[in-house]
């Protein structure tokens, strides 16, 4: 499960056991100044790349399902005129065996919660 907000990204690695999702590992990070300027599609792709780098040892030789709430990512791999940054990320992800499945943001509780970190650039003295 992956989710991005305006200032942070969150991902949950888990497995299904008897139709129940069991989390294995949680990961989140705040975005730097440059990453906060990314488009929504770039932010959602950033969290997928972050998750695959973070959980590399779990995912490298296994078939995976990525639950996302941004359906445009599914079609990005077929697009030929994407930005250079997105093309680099697509090339990086091609070594993994995975597929995207759309979920509603409300159903993606854990990853959504992890991506809702506070704004690190907010001036606390105002």
Automatic annotation (TrEMBL):
Gene3D superfamilies: 3.10.20.370. The keyword Transferase applies. The keyword DNA-binding does not apply. GO terms for molecular function: endonuclease activity; hydrolase activity; RNA-directed DNA polymerase activity. InterPro entries: DNA/RNA_pol_sf, RT_RNaseH. Residues 2-96 form the Reverse transcriptase RNase H-like domain. It holds the Pfam family RT_RNaseH. Keywords: Endonuclease, Hydrolase, Nuclease, Nucleotidyltransferase, RNA-directed DNA polymerase, Transferase. This is Reverse transcriptase domain-containing protein.
